[in-house]
Write a structure and sequence with these properties.
- The protein is of the alpha+beta class and 196 residues long.
- Helices cover 17% and strands 54% of the residues.
- The protein has 3 helices and 10 strands; from the N terminus they run αααββββββββββ.
- It has a 10-stranded antiparallel beta barrel with strand order 1-2-3-4-5-6-7-8-9-10.
- The radius of gyration is 24 Å and the shape is elongated.
- The protein starts with a helix and ends in a 7-residue tail after the last strand.
- The mean pLDDT is 82.
Length: 196
Amino acid sequence: TSPAAPAAKPRYLKAMKNLAAILALALTLPLTAQMPSPGKEHQKLARHVGTWDAVMEHAGEDGKPMKSKGVSIRKQPLGGFWVTDNFQAKFMGMDFRGMGTTGYDPAKKKYVTSWVDSMTPSLMVMEGNYDKTGKVLTMEGKGPNFEGTALVTHRHVITQKDANTEVFEMHIDTGGGKFMNCLLYTSDAADERSSV
């Protein structure tokens, strides 16, 4: 028998007793003290939940303006913290699919969003806040440039016109702090909703 063996067992027992004490303390805490709950900022996002019909306006390959149609299906499945967006459309004659998540980060005191789609290999992460009216959400972050060769600053502006209409604008930094409005779309709720 190794001389260290007798000392190992007491140390093991002491560690197990400490673990048991920590677990016992955790169980005595109220569940609400352990688990955060959605705040008013998360509840504000609930007004975006539902099925939305979108009409997109953008420049075609020849530079002329064109319109496309799409559908955005938004849900709030993760305990009320996150709104998920499943977007499908015809974009420049091709099938386009995108998926996003939007929530509120209490530590940053900002709304945060992520986006991936079928036309770009880069993950877009943005953050921002509503204006004083509570109807205009401006988000900024990094996303691919037009060529897909580098990450540049993107600015998204979502304006809630009323309970059933919103306007989305996507601006991309073209250099020197100048932004180009490269996508505009208006979404109308496919199902009537009340203001939140």
